[in-house]
């Protein structure tokens, strides 16, 4: 039996840990109040997106980052990647429970911890666990989505945030580290026939329970399986969180079909306040970050525009062309396939090498691009957790050809 002195010491350290955790939580809550989607003065200045990277040094990527989100998706710049496999969703059951929040910034749904929902496949090398859903929407029907499609916004955008559960223990740790997050984004449109899952979230009895900031409401038996659009087609690119601290650790997957809500439901969303009851009412609508430059990033897709598909929003078949001699597209596909054989895990976890190879073959020889890609892979393997050991143990098939 422990001595009184040991019990006292144990209690002391337990209190220190609790105090530290409470301080961290309080600090996070305070920092959450440091930013908004719309510049406003409510007794003090609250910085909008243009100032996020200036008010807090920990948020510097919001201003200086080169791989920021959201972006404007130009379909003419999309690259068809035949090696993007369909995504797999493991719901862990037909129904889930969770708590819906008015965060003052967006509507959030956080699933109960016992409901394990995983996604894998697609551009992912690891299994990712669903942590939270966020709903963005506009004050009218011509805006509301954070991502744009050929410069066009949608009335809303639903973002499903998943963290890499194989490398990291929680979403906070994952958001700070490479290969940390996968966000599945689904555009929201207006229709008389709403999505069954969103119907449960946005009916009048439910949505009025979270009218003001910090309101929360527990929901049971949500039909999560009805949320995902009936399509295996998607667009993907590497980017960042669209909220501070804007860490560039996110792979975005944008589904090729929207989900639908009614006009009554989106009107109910626009009546949600970003403030508490004692403060002046300000609608939560237009809770979007402006788009950021795509830069040298690639937007890949598993939609083959050379083959007509029911999933394609434009029924006219399109064929993506690259600069260079005739037959470069076939050579590019063969090059990427060969490269995947040598370093498969690296190429599945990021589109950096695939993007480089695509741009390289239009200007240089195939083998020149191949060797450049190898050196790029070696650089990636030094900073991505879990890759170094596998890379070192795997023989590279190109070495006999080079030597």
UniProtKB/TrEMBL annotation:
<dbReference type="InterPro" id="IPR023561">
    <property type="entry name" value="Carbonic_anhydrase_a-class"/>
</dbReference>
<dbReference type="InterPro" id="IPR041878">
    <property type="entry name" value="Alpha_CARP_X/XI"/>
</dbReference>
<dbReference type="GO" id="GO:0006730">
    <property type="term" value="P:one-carbon metabolic process"/>
</dbReference>
<dbReference type="InterPro" id="IPR036398">
    <property type="entry name" value="CA_dom_sf"/>
</dbReference>
<comment type="similarity">
    <text>Belongs to the alpha-carbonic anhydrase family.</text>
</comment>
<dbReference type="GO" id="GO:0008270">
    <property type="term" value="F:zinc ion binding"/>
</dbReference>
<dbReference type="GO" id="GO:0004089">
    <property type="term" value="F:carbonate dehydratase activity"/>
</dbReference>
<feature type="domain" description="Alpha-carbonic anhydrase">
    <location>
        <begin position="33"/>
        <end position="303"/>
    </location>
</feature>
<dbReference type="Pfam" id="PF00194">
    <property type="entry name" value="Carb_anhydrase"/>
</dbReference>
<protein>
    <submittedName>
        <fullName>Carbonic anhydrase 10</fullName>
    </submittedName>
</protein>
<comment type="function">
    <text>Does not have a catalytic activity.</text>
</comment>
<dbReference type="InterPro" id="IPR001148">
    <property type="entry name" value="CA_dom"/>
</dbReference>
């Amino acid at each position: 039996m422990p001595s009184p002195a040991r019990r006292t010491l144990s209690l002391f350290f337990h209190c220190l840990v609790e105090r530290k955790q409470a301080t961290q939580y309080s600090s996070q809550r305070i920092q959450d109040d440091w930013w908004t989607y719309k510049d406003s003065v409510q007794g003090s200045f609250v910085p909008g997106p243009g100032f996020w990277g200036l008010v807090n040094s920990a948020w510097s990527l919001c201003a200086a980052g080169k791989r920021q989100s959201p972006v404007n998706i130009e379909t003419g710049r999309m690259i068809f990647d035949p090696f993007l496999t369909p995504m797999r969703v493991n719901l862990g059951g037909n129904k889930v429970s969770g708590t819906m929040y008015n965060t003052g910034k967006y509507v959030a749904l956080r699933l109960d911890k016992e409901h394990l929902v995983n996604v894998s496949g697609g551009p992912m090398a690891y299994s990712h666990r669903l942590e939270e859903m966020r709903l963005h929407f506009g004050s009218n029907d011509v805006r509301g989505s954070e991502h744009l499609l050929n410069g066009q916004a949608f009335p809303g955008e639903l973002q499903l945030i998943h963290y890499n559960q194989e490398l990291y223990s929680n979403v906070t740790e994952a958001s700070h580290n490479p290969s940390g997050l996968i966000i599945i984004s689904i555009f929201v449109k207006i229709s008389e026939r709403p999505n069954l899952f969103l119907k449960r979230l946005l009916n009048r009895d439910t949505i009025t329970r979270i009218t003001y900031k910090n309101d929360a409401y527990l929901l049971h038996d949500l039909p999560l399986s009805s949320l995902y659009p009936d399509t295996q087609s998607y667009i993907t690119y590497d980017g960042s969180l669209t909220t501070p601290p804007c860490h560039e650790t996110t792979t975005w997957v944008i589904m090729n079909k929207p989900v639908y809500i009614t006009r009554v439901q989106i009107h109910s969303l626009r009546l949600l306040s970003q403030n508490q009851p004692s403060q002046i009412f300000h609608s939560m609508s237009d809770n979007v970050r402006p788009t950021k430059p795509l830069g040298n990033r690639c937007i890949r897709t598993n939609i083959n525009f050379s083959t007509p598909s029911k999933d394609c929003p434009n029924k006219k078949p399109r064929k993506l062309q690259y600069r260079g001699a005739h037959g470069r597209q076939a050579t590019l596909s063969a090059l990427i396939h060969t490269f995947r054989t040598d370093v498969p895990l690296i190429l599945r976890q990021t589109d950096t090498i695939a993007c480089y190879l695509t741009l390289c073959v239009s200007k240089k020889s195939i083998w020149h691009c191949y060797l450049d890609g190898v050196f790029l892979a070696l650089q990636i393997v030094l900073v991505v957790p879990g890759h170094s050991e596998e890379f070192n143990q795997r023989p590279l098939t190109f070495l006999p050809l080079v030597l």
